[in-house]
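Render this sequence as a predicted structure.
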Amino acid sequence: MNILFMCVANSARSQLAEGLARHAFGPSAHVESAGSKPSTLNPLAVAALAESGIDISRHRSKSVDELDSTFVARLDYVITLCAEEVCPVVLSKAKKLHWPFPDPAGKGGSDEEQLARFREARDGIRARLVAFRDEVLGKS
């Protein structure tokens, strides 16, 4: 199964989702993430997942054009995570799902307030992902 998570910058939400999905699905899925306007991996996304024992420190922000063309051609699911901005679109026969999560990076505040938003996004994406995994793998 091939799963692509997308948001605009591929710096926070889609990176969280990629890390969580790779952990949740293991070898039963090929998981990637990308953005329509890639920027830089947000260190708070790295920190929030590290608290859960998931290391994405070697990930980088990227566009769909940088992904392996065979992976993109064989996509089963494209999951967008945008809430307040225009989500990217991928031309594909894959099933498209939309999980709107507010961008945890864009609201300022103290370091602790920012990290709290990343934890909230991580936990929300994890809950959605576990339900999705159980549905597609037929678990109950």
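Summary. The first strand starts at residue 2 and ends at 7. The mean pLDDT is 94.
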